[in-house]
Specification:
- The structure holds 3 protein chains of 3 kinds.
- By secondary structure, chain A is mainly alpha-helical.
- Chain A contains 14 helices and 4 strands.
- Chain A has a two-stranded antiparallel sheet with strand order 1-4.
- The longest helix of chain A is centred in the last third of the chain and has 30 residues.
- By secondary structure, chain B is mainly alpha-helical.
- In chain B, a hairpin with a 2-residue loop joins strand 4 and strand 5.
- Chain C is built from 17 helices and 22 strands.
- The radius of gyration of chain C is 25 Å and the shape is globular.
- Chain C has a 6-stranded mixed beta sheet with strand order 6-9-10-3-11-12, sandwiched between helices. In chain C, strands 18-19-20-15-21-22 form a 6-stranded mixed beta sheet, sandwiched between helices.
- The chains are: A mainly alpha, B mainly alpha, C alpha/beta.
- Chains B and C meet through helix 10 and helix 11 of B and helix 10, helix 11 and helix 12 of C.
Chain lengths: ~325, ~350, ~500
C-alpha cells in the first residue's frame, strides 16, 4: 500500500474496531436506525468539517464556523418570520453572505499577512455578534417547507431513516473529495499546505487560492447552518458554540495533518462518524456520564496525533536507510 | 526608554479607547473612595480584566517560545472545579489553593511534555486538553455547579486590599513578578533564544526541553490563579462556562500587545496592555450605552482595526508609500524589515 | 545567442546590486556564474526569473526582448529554475509535482491515470526508476533534484538556471546530476550553473562568468582558465597563498594527549572508532557527504548518544550524553547548518555570542548587559566581524560574519576541544582565509580542534592529522607528510588501501 494512505487506513480501522466493540456490547447498534440517526445527528458537523478539511489541508484554520452556523440559523429564522420570502430564496441569500464572509477573511489573511488563527478569531466574534444583533432569543421556524424538508427521508430496510440532511452531508463529502483530490484547486490547496514559498514558485496564485479556500469554508458553514436549522427547526444565537473545535478534532481524527499538506476528506467523514459513535455508545450505556465523550475524544485525538508522529518518523527513517 | 517605546502603540490605543468611552460616558475616569475602597469603571476594568490578564502573562511566555496554549480556558475550569471541590470537602483554604495550583502545574507539565518531549506542534498538543479538559472539570464537579460559602476563598474574587480589588492586585503582582523573573535573570534571553531557534539554542547548551516545559507550567499556573479568582468571584465552580473562550482573549491580548506569534522577542507589559484594551472594549461598550448585543460586533471591528494597523504588510506599504513620495528615506529597521517581507 | 543580457542594472536602497552587467548564454552550453557572496549572482538570477524588476538594461531570449514579471511568466517564456532546496512540494506525489499547473483533466477533473503517464513520460531519459504515485518526500534529495530539473525542462525548455544544485548531494549523486545536465546540453538546452564548488565548475562547464561587487569581471572559456586565475577574478587581488599553501610548521610534533575516545560508536550512525586528540592539535575529518563525518562529530558532542565505548581525559571518563554534558566537559561545536543549528537569527550579535556562556552559567546568574557588550565588542574586533555594532540582529549579517559569530560564541567559552563542521561552507573567500588563520591562532594557545571539511585543500592547510571516513567507518589516519590530496582521495576511494592505518 502507498504509505500516504496509512493514516486513512488507521482511521478506518479504528472506526471499525470501535463499531465492533459497540455492537458486541449492544447488538442493536448494527441496525440501520442507528446508522440513519448517526448520519442525521452529525449532518451539520460533517458538512462544516468538509470545509474545515480544505482549510486545514492548506495549512490554515477557520475558527469562525461555529459562529457562522449560529448566524445562519438566526438569519434564516428571522427572515422567515419577518419577510415572507420562500426558504429557498433565504437559503440562497444566506449562502451568498457566508461565502462572501469567508472570502473576506481569506482576503484579509492574504493581504495583511496575518495568521489565519487571529483573523478567523475576529470573524468568530463578528459572526456571533451579528447573530446577537438579529435576535437574542431562540426563534422557532414554522414554515411549511421546513416540515416538508424534515419529513423527507428514505426508509431503509430495518426501518432506519436516511434523512435528506444525512444525504446532503454525504453528497457534500463526495463534493469535498472531488474538490480536494481531483481538481486543480485541490492541488493548489495541498501545495499551499506544503509551503507557501514553494507553492508560489510552482505557479500557485496564492492570493486567489487563499480567498477561495476560506470562501469554500464559509459556504460549507452556511450550508451546515441551513442543515442545522432544519435539524432543530429554530435559530438561536448561542447555538453551536465550540463546533469549530469539534470539526477540527474530526478532521484530525480523520487522519489529516493539522499542519497542512496531507490528508483526506473521506477520512474526515470517518472522523465525524467515530465521534458520533462514541456519543451514541454513551447514550446507549446510560450509566456513563456525558463528560466521558469529551475525555474519550481527547484520548482519540492524542492517539491519532501520536500515530501520525510515529508514521512520519518511520518514513524519515526509511528515507535515511 | 526602549521598553517605553516598545509599548507606545498599545498605550496610545488604550488612551484613545478610554477617551472614546469617556465621550459617551463622561464618568468613565472617575474614581471614588467609598467604604474604604476605590470604586469606578476603571477599577472595575482592572478587576474584571484579571483572568485575561493572568492568562496573557503565561501566554506571552508560551508564544515567545513559538508555541501557543489553547488549553488555558479549560484549565481555568479544571482548577476552578478543583478549588471548589477541595473547599467543600474540607481541605481548607490553603489546601484548596495548593491543590488548584498543583492541578494547573500538572496541566502545564502535560502540555509541555507533549510539545517538548513528544515533539507535537503546540497548537495540536494543547488542542487535546482544550477538547477534553471540560470533561475532566465536569468529572470533578460531577456535572453540577459546585457552590460553596467560604469567606476566605471569596476574598480572592471580591475582596479588597488597601482599597484595591484583590484580583487586580493578583494579576499586577503576577505580572511584575514574572517580568522581574524574566528580565532580572537570564530566563528572558533563554526563552527568546529557544523561541527563535530551538535547535541552535540546544546546541549552544540551553536546556530547551526543560525551558519549554517550564513555560507551559507557567501558563498552567497563571490559568490556575485565574481559575481560583473566577471560582472565588461567583462562589462556585461552573465546569461548562468557567474560562470559556478566555484562551482566545488571552491570545488576542498577546497579539494586540505586538508580540509575534512566530516567537522570539516578547513584552509582558505590552500583552497586559492588550488585555486591558480588550477589557476596556468590553466594559466601555456597556458603559457607553450600547446594547450588549453589539458588544461582540464592536469588539470584532476594533480587533480588526488594531490588527490592520499592526500588520507587517501594512508597514511595508507605508514604507513604500513614503519612499515613493520621497520623504525621509531613512526608515526604522522595523519598517524596513516589514518591507522586505 | 539563446539569451543575451546587456547593461543589466538593479539598485536597492544603499547598494547597487547589479551595475551594467552583460551576459550571454548559447544553446547547448553550460555556463558557470561565479562570484563571492554579495557579488550579484542571486540578483541576476532573480531579474531573469521575474522575482525582481530590473532598473535598466535589456534581456533578450531568442532575439526577443523579454521582461518577465513573475516566476510563472519566466517559465512560460522558457526560463526555468532549479534551486538548492525549495523546489518542489514534498507532500505531493512525484506525478502531482511534475504535472502541477498542467494537470490533464477529464470532465473538469484531474485524470489520475493520464497524470501518472504524463509524469512517467517526463521522467524518461533521466535514468530514474521510481513510482510516480508516491510522495516526493519518500525519495532522496538527489532524486528530488532530478525531478525538479525534469519539471523545469518540460515547462520551459530553453534556459535552465541551476542555483547551487549540488550543495546537498554526495559525489555519486553529483555525477548522476551532471550526466543529466550533459545530456540536456547535447539536446540544445542552455544552462546557467551557480556553484561554490570550483571542481564541479571545471569538470562540467563550457564557459565561466565572474561577477564581483555587482559588475561583470570576465567571461572566459573554462578550458582556458586555471584555478588560481579564477580565484583572482573572484577575489579581485592575488591570493596570497594563505589558503592553498599554508602548512603547519609543527607537523608530527609529539603532543600530550588531551582526550581519548575508545570504541566510541552508535549503530546506524558510525561504527565504533578509537581516536586520540592531542593538546593544541588540529584534526581533520575527511570523507564524502553521508560517510559518517557529521555523525562522528554529533556523537562526540552528545547530539546523539553513543551505544558503545567511552571518552576519557587525564582525570578519567567524561560524560558526553548530551550537548550540555559535552559543554560542561569543555567541548564546543559549530554545526554545518549554520542557519538552522548555529545562529539564533532574530537575536543580536551580542546575545548570540553570550548565549552558550549564559547557558553554562544557568538562568539564575545573568551576564549583565555591559558584560555582554564588552564580550561582543571584543570578538567583533578580534574576528573582524562586519556589523554595525553588538546590537545588530545576526540574521542581517552575511554568511561569513554569521559563522564568525558562532565561532565567537565558542571561543568565548574557551573550550579545550572545539568541533567545526564545514566552517567555511558558503562563505566568501576573504572570510574563508580569516577563519583558517583563526584556527591556527587558537591552537597555538592550546585549544584542540576537529575540522570537518569537503575541501581537501583546506584540510591540508590546517590539519596536523587527517582521519578519513568512509561508509560510516573511520578507515584511515594520515599524519605529517602523508597528508596530500592524493593520499586522502585514495583513502576515500579505495577500500583496500590505507585500511591498516586506521
Amino acid at each position: 500500500m502507498n504509505p500516504r494512505l496509512y493514516p486513512l487506513a488507521a482511521t478506518i480501522a479504528i472506526f471499525l474496531v470501535a463499531w465492533v466493540i459497540c455492537v458486541l456490547q449492544f447488538p442493536y447498534m448494527l441496525s440501520t436506525r442507528v446508522v440513519g440517526n448517526l448520519l442525521t445527528d452529525n449532518a451539520y458537523l460533517g458538512i462544516v468539517a468538509v470545509g474545515m478539511t480544505i482549510v486545514i489541508l492548506s495549512g490554515g484554520i477557520d475558527l469562525s464556523v461555529g459562529s457562522v452556523i449560529a448566524f445562519a440559523g438566526v438569519f434564516i429564522s428571522v427572515m422567515l418570520r419577518d419577510s415572507g420570502l420562500h426558504p429557498l430564496v433565504v437559503f440562497a441569500l444566506l449562502l451568498v453572505l457566508t461565502t462572501a464572509f469567508g472570502a473576506a477573511m481569506g482576503w484579509l489573511i492574504h493581504t495583511l499577512a496575518m495568521p489565519p488563527f487571529i483573523v478567523t478569531l475576529a470573524g468568530m466574534f463578528l459572526a456571533r455578534g451579528l447573530a446577537y444583533m438579529l435576535t437574542i432569543d431562540s426563534v422557532p421556524i414554522n414554515h411549511g417547507f421546513y416540515k416538508f424538508l424534515n419529513d423527507a427521508y428514505w426508509l431503509m430496510p430495518g426501518k432506519g431513516r436516511l434523512t435528506l440532511i444525512g444525504v446532503v452531508m454525504l453528497l457534500t463529502v463526495a463534493v469535498g473529495m472531488v474538490v480536494a483530490h481531483r481538481t486543480k484547486f485541490g492541488a493548489s490547496v495541498l501545495a499551499l499546505g506544503g509551503g507557501e514559498a514553494t507553492a508560489r514558485l510552482m505557479g500557485v496564485r496564492v492570493g486567489a487560492t487563499t480567498v477561495a479556500i476560506y470562501a469554500f469554508s464559509g459556504f460549507m458553514a452556511g450550508l451546515a447552518g441551513i442543515v442545522f436549522s432544519i435539524y432543530t427547526s429554530s435559530g438561536y444565537p448561542l447555538a453551536t458554540v465550540g463546533t469549530e473545535l469539534t470539526a477540527i478534532a474530526a478532521v484530525v481524527i480523520g487522519g489529516t495533518l493539522l499542519t497542512g499538506g496531507a490528508g483526506f476528506v473521506f477520512g474526515t467523514l470517518i472522523g465525524v462518524l467515530t465521534m458520533g459513535l462514541i456519543q451514541t455508545f454513551i447514550v446507549f450505556d446510560g450509566t456513563l456520564s456525558s463528560w466521558w465523550t469529551k475525555i474519550i475524544i481527547g484520548i482519540l485525538l492524542l492517539s491519532f496525533i501520536l500515530l501520525q508522529k510515529g508514521l512520519m518518523r518511520l518514513s524519515t527513517v526509511g528515507q535515511r536507510a | 526608554m526602549t521598553a517605553l517605546l516598545r509599548i507606545t502603540p498599545q498605550l496610545l490605543t488604550l488612551a484613545a479607547l478610554m477617551a472614546m468611552v469617556t465621550l459617551f460616558f463622561p464618568g468613565f475616569l472617575k474614581i471614588e473612595f467609598v467604604d474604604g475602597r476605590l470604586v469606578g469603571p476603571v477599577m472595575d476594568i482592572l478587576k474584571r480584566g484579571a483572568p485575561v490578564g493572568l492568562l496573557a502573562v503565561g501566554m506571552t511566555l508560551v508564544i515567545a517560545t513559538r508555541g501557543i496554549d489553547l488549553s488555558v480556558g479549560t484549565v481555568v475550569a479544571i482548577t476552578g472545579a478543583v478549588t471548589a471541590w477541595a473547599i467543600t470537602n474540607g481541605y481548607g483554604l490553603g489546601g484548596a489553593l495548593v491543590l488548584a495550583l498543583a492541578a494547573g502545574a500538572v496541566a502545564g507539565i502535560w502540555n509541555g511534555c507533549l510539545v517538548a518531549i513528544a515533539g507535537i506542534q503546540p497548537i495540536v498538543a494543547t488542542l487535546i486538553l482544550m477538547t477534553s479538559g471540560r470533561g475532566i472539570a465536569q468529572l470533578v464537579t460531577e456535572g453540577r455547579i459546585l457552590t460553596f460559602s467560604h469567606d476566605g476563598l471569596a476574598f480572592f474574587g471580591s475582596g479588597d486590599l488597601l482599597g484595591i480589588p484583590v484580583p487586580a492586585l493578583i494579576w499586577l503582582a503576577t505580572a511584575i513578578g514574572v517580568t522581574l523573573l524574566m528580565r532580572r535573570t537570564a530566563l528572558g534571553l533563554l526563552v527568546e533564544a529557544v523561541g527563535v531557534n530551538r535547535a541552535a539554542s540546544a546546541l549552544a547548551g540551553v536546556n530547551a526541553t526543560v525551558l519549554l516545559i517550564a513555560v507551559y507550567v507557567a501558563s498552567g499556573l497563571c490559568a490556575a490563579l485565574a481559575g481560583i479568582i473566577a471560582t472565588a468571584d461567583i462562589r462556585g465552580a461552573d465546569a461548562n462556562n468557567a474560562g470559556l473562550w478566555l484562551e482566545l482573549d488571552a491570545i488576542l491580548a498577546v497579539v494586540i500587545g505586538g508580540n509575534s506569534l512566530l516567537g522570539g522577542r516578547f513584552s509582558i507589559a505590552a500583552a497586559l496592555l492588550g488585555a486591558l484594551i480588550i477589557q476596556t472594549i468590553d466594559t466601555g461598550i456597556l458603559l457607553a450605552g450600547f446594547p450588549s448585543e453589539y458588544n461582540l460586533v464592536i469588539k470584532a471591528a476594533l480587533v480588526l482595526v488594531i490588527l490592520v494597523l499592526q500588520s507587517p504588510n501594512l508597514a511595508g506599504h507605508w514604507y513604500a508609500l513614503r519612499r515613493t513620495f520621497g520623504r525621509q528615506p531613512a526608515a526604522t529597521t522595523a519598517t524596513a524589515k516589514g518591507a522586505k517581507q | 545567442m539563446l539569451l543575451t543580457i546587456r547593461s543589466l542594472t538593479k539598485t536597492f536602497p544603499g547598494t547597487r546590486a547589479l551595475d551594467g552587467v552583460d551576459f550571454d548564454l548559447a544553446a547547448g552550453e553550460i555556463h558557470a556564474l561565479l562570484g563571492e557572496n554579495g557579488a550579484g549572482k542571486s540578483t541576476l538570477i532573480k531579474c531573469l526569473t521575474g522575482a525582481y524588476a530590473r532598473d535598466a538594461g535589456k534581456i533578450s531570449l531568442d532575439g526577443q526582448t523579454v521582461s518577465p514579471k513573475s516566476t510563472s511568466e519566466a517559465q512560460e517564456l522558457g526560463i526555468g529554475t532549479v534551486y538548492q532546496e525549495v523546489n518542489l512540494l514534498a507532500n505531493l506525489t512525484v506525478a502531482q509535482n511534475l504535472t502541477f499547473g498542467r494537470e490533464p483533466t477529464r470532465f473538469g477533473m484531474v485524470d489520475g491515470r493520464a497524470q501518472r503517464q504524463q509524469a512517467e513520460a517526463m521522467l524518461e531519459g533521466y535514468g530514474l526508476d521510481i513510482d510516480v504515485s508516491r510522495d516526493l518526500s519518500t525519495y532522496s534529495v538527489a532524486v528530488r533534484q532530478i525531478v525538479a530539473i525534469a519539471r523545469a525542462v518540460a515547462l520551459s525548455g530553453k534556459v535552465l538556471i541551476l542555483d547551487e544544485p549540488t550543495a546537498s548531494l554526495d559525489s555519486r549523486e553529483v555525477e548522476t546530476l551532471f550526466g543529466v545536465m550533459r545530456k540536456l546540453r547535447d539536446q540544445g538546452m542552455g544552462m546557467i550553473f551557480v556553484s561554490h564548488f570550483l571542481d564541479q565548475v571545471f569538470s562540467l562547464t563550457d564557459r565561466v562568468t565572474v561577477l564581483r561587487n555587482g559588475r561583470k569581471i570576465t567571461t572566459e572559456r573554462t578550458a582556458d582558465l586555471d584555478r588560481v586565475r579564477l580565484i583572482e577574478h573572484m577575489l579581485g587581488h592575488t591570493l596570497e597563498n594563505e589558503v592553498a599553501g599554508h602548512r603547519k610548521a609543527d607537523h608530527g610534533l609529539p603532543r600530550s594527549e588531551l582526550l581519548r575516545f575508545e570504541d566510541f560508536g552508535r549503530r546506524g550512525h558510525i561504527e565504533p572508532f578509537n581516536l586520540s586528540v592531542g593538546e593544541g592539535e588540529v584534526l581533520g575529518l575527511a570523507g564524502l557527504l553521508g560517510s559518517g563525518r557529521t555523525e562522528s562529530a554529533e556523537l562526540m558532542f552528545g547530539v546523539a548518544s553513543a551505544h558503545s565505548g567511552s571518552a576519557q581525559d587525564k582525570s578519567g571518563a567524561i560524560d558526553l550524553s548530551s550537548p550540555r554534558a559535552a559543554i560542561a566537559a569543555g567541548f564546543g561545536f559549530a554545526p554545518e547548518e549554520r542557519k538552522a543549528d548555529g545562529i539564533v537569527a532574530d537575536l543580536s550579535v551580542r546575545e548570540n555570542i553570550a548565549l552558550a556562556m549564559q547557558a553554562r552559567r544557568g538562568w539564575a546568574r545573568p551576564i549583565s548587559r555591559s558584560e555582554q557588550t564588552r564580550l561582543a565588542q571584543d570578538y567583533i574586533a578580534r574576528l573582524d566581524i562586519r556589523t554595525s555594532g553588538p546590537d545588530q540582529v545576526v540574521g542581517d549579517l552575511s554568511g561569513g560574519n554569521q559563522q564568525k559569530v558562532v565561532l565567537a560564541r565558542w571561543l568565548a567559552m574557551n573550550p579545550r576541544f572545539l568541533i567545526l563542521d564545514e566552517p567555511t561552507r558558503g562563505i566568501d573567500v576573504g572570510a574563508h582565509a580569516e577563519i583558517l588563520r583563526l584556527i591556527d591562532e587558537v591552537t597555538k594557545e592550546g585549544m584542540s580542534i576537529l575540522v570537518i571539511s569537503s575541501e581537501l585543500d583546506e584540510l591540508i592547510a590546517v590539519a596536523n592529522r587527517v582521519i578519513v571516513v568512509r561508509d560510516r567507518r573511520h578507515v584511515a589516519e594520515l599524519t605529517g607528510s602523508e597528508i596530500t590530496t592524493e593520499t586522502i582521495v585514495r583513502a576515500i576511494a579505495a577500500p583496500e588501501q590505507g585500511e591498516d592505518a586506521a
